[in-house]
Specification:
Blueprint: H1 6-9, H2 23-29, H3 32-46, H4 51-64, H5 68-85, H6 88-100, H7 105-118, H8 122-135, H9 140-153, H10 157-170, H11 175-182
């Protein structure tokens, strides 16, 4: 069973505009990449991808071809839209392209892991989460949690337990990690 839930654990690369000036002036000053990021943020919150969000990111992809520093983040955000839709193959393709284009690695690798887990390719997901952890400077508890879910789905219960435990240690007030950890019964504590 695919345990990963996008809304709770994704770390997508979102670039958001500052809140200055009137709404109309602010909207006019946003780059296509920022409009795409805002659309992805809204889709992440609602769990649904609108036609407007798809259009915003498609526009940003065309624009980003001419702004190399923006291509990676835009591809990553477009991958998140595919992830929300459940189009995991397209999401993985965008995340891989985003990594080649220089997107922020830890969040993109984490999101790629979610897509791989969605395809029930748990070992690939575990590998992506491991790569994400190697590059992560923040949100490590969420990456450990995601890897724990993939480990559990793959039947690697000891590894899953250790990652859930690490997630709970890193974020002691995060109920989701504590709840997942509480499902385990450790019969030989010295072995973990």
């Amino acid at each position: 069973m695919f345990r990963s839930t996008f809304a709770a654990v994704a770390l997508s690369t979102l670039m958001l505009a500052s809140a200055t000036g009137s709404a109309q002036a602010e909207e006019a000053g946003k780059t296509p990449a920022i409009r795409c990021a805002a659309a992805v943020q809204a889709a992440s919150r609602s769990g649904t991808v609108t036609d407007a969000a798809t259009h915003a990111c498609q526009q940003a992809l065309g624009w980003a071809q001419f702004v190399p520093d923006e291509l990676g983040p835009v591809l990553s955000n477009n991958g998140v839209l595919h992830l929300i839709r459940g189009d995991y193959q397209a999401a993985i393709a965008d995340f891989n392209a985003a990594l080649r284009a220089g997107a922020e690695a830890s969040s993109t690798l984490n999101d790629r892991g979610l897509a791989e887990a969605g395809l029930h390719n748990y070992q690939a997901a575990i590998d992506s989460y491991g790569q994400a952890l190697a590059k992560a400077t923040g949100n490590q508890e969420r990456i450990h949690f995601n890897r724990a879910m993939a480990e559990e789905d793959a039947g690697n219960l000891k590894a899953a337990y250790l990652d859930y435990r690490k997630a709970a240690e890193l974020a002691p007030n995060w109920g989701k990690a504590a709840s997942a950890l509480s499902r385990f019964k450790v019969s030989h504590p010295a072995m973990v």
